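Before relying on records like the one below, remember that each one covers exactly one chain. Contacts with other chains, cofactors or solvent are not represented anywhere in the record.
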Amino acid sequence: MKELFNHKAEQGLLGCCLLGGIEEAISAGVDGAWFFDLRHYEVFRTLEAMHERSEEIETVKAVHELRNNNVLDKIGGATALTEWQDSAPTKHNSGYWLSELFVYKTRRQTKAKLENALAAISGASTGEVDDIISSLQTFILDMKDHVGRTVDETLNTTVTEIVEEVEERFNNKTETPWGVPTGFMPLDDELGGLREGAVYILAGRPGQGKTAMALSIARNILMAGNPVAMFSLEMTKKELGMRLMASHGELNMTTVYKGTLSEQEFKKISKSVEVKMLPIYVSDRTDLTVNMLRSEARRYVNNFGVRVIIIDYIQLLQGTKETRKLGKYEVVSEISRGIKLMATELNVPVIALAQLNREAEKATNRKPQLSMLRDSGSLEQDADCCMFLFEPPEENESWGEESYTKNINLTIAKNRNGASGGSVAFEFIPEYTKFKSKSPIL
């Protein structure tokens, strides 16, 4: 079995720090996990504290600091520091020792993760086993990405790709959004489409059509031939299927449930069943943690080419055992960050539905604010775009030949890739659970 530590490498890095290489170690994120010998970490913390105070790090001063911190005798006195400096032998060797220590740190972390999983899996329930496996998958993939990172970290390739896309759009005079089109022209004008790796929060109070709006966007994306994955923590797959059928075939699902379909309505069934051919993948598990979500989403993207992920809704995801002990705010913060990492990792847009708190009902002109996102401000922080559904205060219902519609506005409260503050007007047909833009659909 390979060793899990390298005292020489730890001492070599500390020697480099004593010679002025502390900044490279700090930039690499060196912390306690990098050291097997805790005495070595105490020395590093002392040198790091000196650097933070803008003090010059030299042997005499370091000896004084370490003696004051009761560390010097633990490491063998001033002689040890001199020997470590000699083994360095210059501050420019920091990179070598850092790469060595990273290997040992990775071995220890992987071993500990596997041992903890092995201990936890004994006697675990099916749900707990799923959570353990999902956590392992996430850890392994994150570690693999970090260990195997060989990409060019400059902007050279990135800028070239951007210029090529701009040139293509200029030459073809295309108005196609930069991201995946939502199918609603006014919304795409505001957002530029759904961008890869971005998180879109779609929030509102209960009953204002969050799920219906998400399904309307999903249907448009699906009809364009782009696969969609939907994680429904509130509705079953059957309920979502019936909603999608109602929207697609303009079928009144109330009459379907009651069995009071008219002859004309019954003929719409053949239109509504066309949704079974759409490339939508639905998970209706209600016990999902953010790690399990990332694992399933990764499978959908890699195996089925999913282009957009929808989560209904974010506050129903479960946190880890540790964060659940701290409270709902911490749970939602953990989930919010996990979803952003997932979007970035898979390079697909994520639409995450969320609840607004009761203050939204008291808002002037009923227009929600970012502060009304329920449970956590990190939803606002991590999201690339925050959109709110609300009913405008004017007369809000109109009757057509067969149904009535409600006016629903969608306001863009935050937009990292464009202008904020814009609003898009929609007509919502409750009986079909369907949104229509008041402007032509793409």
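The beta strands are 199-204, 228-232, 280-283, 308-312, 350-355, 385-390, 397-399, 404-415, 423-429, 434-437.
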